[in-house]
Design a protein that fits this description.
The complex is a heterodimer of chains A (142) and B (116). Chain A is of the alpha+beta class. Chain A is built from 4 helices and 5 strands; from the N terminus they run E-H-H-E-E-H-E-E-H. In chain B, helix 1 links the parallel strand 2 and strand 3. In chain B, helix 1 packs parallel to helix 2. The chains are: A alpha+beta (142), B alpha/beta (116).
Chain lengths: 142, 116
Amino acid sequence: MVSRFSYTLDSSLDSVNKVEQAAEQLAQKSGLDEDQTFQLTMAVREAAVNAVLHGNAYDPEKKITASFENDGSSLIIRIGDQGNGLDPTTLPDPLAPENLLNGSGRGIFLIRSFMDEVHFKLLHPGTELTLIKHLGPTQKSA
Amino acid sequence: MSMKISTRQVDGVTILDLSGRITLGEGSVQLRNAVRELLGKGSKDILLNLADVNYIDSSGIGELVSAFTATRNQGGELKLLKLTKKVHDLLQITKLYTVFDVKDDEAQAVAAFSRK
């Protein structure tokens, strides 16, 4: 069944938690198993944290957007911010020996690890991340 | 949703029993403050019991790393005890499993501190 819903939210940790809960509900409704649900929920949470913390820098004047879609074959989640824009090619590799003990910089890596596709789009201003999880045969009919 | 920390001493090792979530804003700050306080008091052998940590995000992972390096920089040791499968898998993916000394048994973990 095709479904879609979206939010426009303040740049706050409460918004991160709301987006996380919405992702978990979408995953469960779409028939993802426990591990898949954990991975999707974590990837979406990381994207929301990026939008609130690194994109909008908690600016109360800036909003984040979050949309959730099950198109029948994939789950598509888009998280947008109004920040300065993120160039993913500039991100250091968190697995490189010189970065392994860094206290941050693993969010995008985890998103890429847990999703089937991750796309970055500059919004002028801001960045939109599109996270895609392809559904299995049984999940497509869920 | 938030994390709880309780502290106990076993044979000179400070064990922090953590439960809940280690995430941006809540658990991460609590963990940072708890480790800083211990190091400030000279407690440099620290064992983080993660048996009841059911969720950790990239901020929480970063905080574990920062706690590890802060302790090591002060001449101490920080080890991890009883990882849940989810935390174990995250440390594997991020190649941090080999950085941390991870134990499943508390007595063995306490005995593994080099000053013991």
